[in-house]
Amino acid sequence: MRINSKVIYITLIIVILLLVTNNTSYYWYTKSLLTEALSMRMESTANQIRTSIELSEEGSFFVEDLVGEKLRAVALFAASKLDPDADKVSNEQLVQLAKQAGVDGFSLMKRSGVGNDIMVAKSSEPKELQIKSTIPFGYWFTAFDQLMTNYQVSIPEGQKLPNFWSGIYEVPASGSSNVSKFGYYYDGSTNYIICVFVNADKIQRFKEIVGADTVVKKTLAANQDILEISGLHGVTFGSKPIEYKGNDGTSFISVYDRPLLFGSYNITNDKDLKYYKEAIQNNKPVSVVESWNGKPILKTFMYVPVKNKLTEIQREVPYVISITSDYQSIQETLNKQLVQLMLVVVLFTVCSCIFIYFVFRFITKSRETAVQSTQEMYIQNVDLMFATIRSQRHDFLNHVQTMYALLANGKKEDQMKYMKELLEEINEVNDIIRIGHPAIAALIQAKFALAMRTKIDFTYEFTGLDGLALGVKSVDLVKIIGNLIDNAFDEVNKFPPGEREVIVNGWSESNQVTISVSNPVLPDFQVEDYNQMFSIGYSTKGDGEHQGLGLSVVKERIEHYKGTIEVCVEDGWICFKISIPMQ
Predict the structure, then answer these.
(1) Are strands 573-581 and 564-570 parallel, antiparallel or unpaired?
(2) Residue 289, strand partner residues
(3) DSSP three-state, residue 368
(4) Between the CA of residue 119 and those of 81, 86, 92, 198, 381, what are the distances in Å?
């Protein structure tokens, strides 16, 4: 009996250790998977923020260039009104000219006579008159010097037009305003450069509407577990940026040199700079779990380098997107699982002890019978416990093997879908502009930028698309909506700028997703049979990029998904309304 008891106790201890080991492994594997899933979600969010910021920056650069073109036109106007000799122009005359031209001010810049320096000789802004040297201005001085020497500017920075150069909107060295946009004109007919400047409030207003900080606010509002988003300058963060001295002695930092480009940076850690540099050096996202105010958080750093030069004027700067998310929910889930696993172990141990007790009572009647009975019970008990272990491990290993197989076969999307069903923790962010579908969001943002360039009043509203399985490929959605919008843009371009309007709406109802695109048409617009509008080759345009193919593509794709399309002309407007069944 003594030997049998010892063997049983040892077996019981081994089984308990196996259970503990198995459950502990499951706990740590689950933690690893949840952390990895959250990291990938944050990387996906960072990528969507990056895409939205790139689109908004392209739009802001476009607006800035429009302001530059207007500054050149104003400078030409000033050249026709001013004496070619700066000494014969008074500051009061420049004040009156600025009011007449509708700008904030004019300055006349000429060689100072000291070396090759350039100074402000006359100005409508008294603070500008304090600028006696522009050599410390860096590439700005290079642009001034090239303009006065060659009548043209060749440096890569800034906007270059005939006899004209304009830098980025910047903090004035004179301290005359917070941020201004300057333009410089010189054609050799005067002994001075005409400098015209305006407050950059329009550019800043545009950035407030669709800029990076707006993207950050919308992302934070849509994701309650994201605590903070920061746009860290890819060069100046972690080091002291270059400080420029204004003529009044005050220091200022260039708009494009600020360490924090957008968002906020209040949740800090001494190791942030290390992870920031690691993300830049490896050009790969870095995710780390840290503690902040006694709570666990997950920080993800993703480097966004400057793209290849796409336009004649390149003003982008590299930056790192830092996303701080709440790790408390994952930690609470893990702690709950740990408690449950420990309860299972304790309950199983108690049950095993009770069972062994009754076995002992039974085997006392006969040693041989007891030995045999004990051995049988022992084997059955061990088999039962190992069956329990195998059953518990079976499902877990199946999950891990399935995800491993998906990963090994390069089926990343299938792996993500499986993990979402298994863990129920991933809620991917599709909507930067609250549309609910990333492909539609990207298309609308691109068309919004095009509408601004062509002076079209483009409005849109999408509701009820968040998280829906539309059953339509993203490529086909872009084809359908994109062609309808392109067709509307082509039609309204026949109107003068103030009358160009396109309205896009999208919603879901009765298990269908509906998109409508409306635009005004000319009074003589007539179509006897709306069906012919969707025929290949039909077009109301004599030339252009869309020669009767767009609407035929729309019809073909709608019919492919067994949807419907309606066309209505009423009160000078035409409306295309499509409906596609959801799966």
Answers:
(1) antiparallel
(2) 298
(3) helix
(4) 22, 12, 19, 19, 96
Instruction: Give the 3-state secondary structure of residue 226.
Output: strand
The dihedral built from the CA positions of residue 319, 323, 324 and 330, taken in this order, carries a sign that is: negative
For 500, phi and psi rounded to 5 degrees? -85, 120
Between CA 74 and CA 98 the distance in angstroms is 9
How many helices (H) and strands (E) are present in the chain, helices listed first? 12, 18
Residue 387 to residue 119: CA distance in whole angstroms: 89
Looking at the whole model, is its pTM more than 0.90?
no
Query: β-strands 501-509, 457-462: how paired?
Result: parallel
- Per-residue HEC secondary structure of 392-428 comes to HHHHHHHHHHHHHHHHHCCCHHHHHHHHHHHHCCCCC
Distance from first CA to last CA of the chain, Å, rounded? 67
Beta carbons of 258 and 238 less than 8 angstroms apart: no
Q: Please, which residues bridge with residue 122 across strands? A: 108
Number of neighbouring beta carbons within 10 Å of residue 191? 16
Strand pairing report for 251-253 and 226-233: unpaired
Cβ-based burial of 160 (10 A; exposed 0-12, middle 13-18, buried ≥19): buried
Identify the residue whose tokens are 């491990």: 393
- The CA distance from 555 to 570, in Å, is 21
Contacts for 449 with CB less than 8 Å, ≥ 6 apart: 55, 58, 59, 62
3-class secondary-structure state, position 469:
coil
Tokens 């193919």 found at: 549
Q: Are strands 260-263 and 319-326 parallel, antiparallel or unpaired?
A: unpaired
- List pLDDT tens digits, range 181-191: 899 999 999 99
* Amino acid sitting at position 357: Y
Cα–Cα distance measured from residue 228 to residue 54, given in angstroms and rounded to the nearest whole number? 20
Tens digit of each residue's pLDDT (9 = 90 or more) over 167-179: 876 656 555 556 7
Indicate if the pLDDT at residue 310 is higher than 60: no
CA atoms of 66 and 325, how far apart (whole Å): 39
421-470 tens-digit pLDDT: 665 533 333 334 456 677 788 788 778 878 888 899 999 988 877 766 66
d(CA 7, CA 250): 85
Q: In this structure, what is the dihedral angle of CA atoms 117, 118, 121, 125, given to the nearest 10 degrees?
A: -130
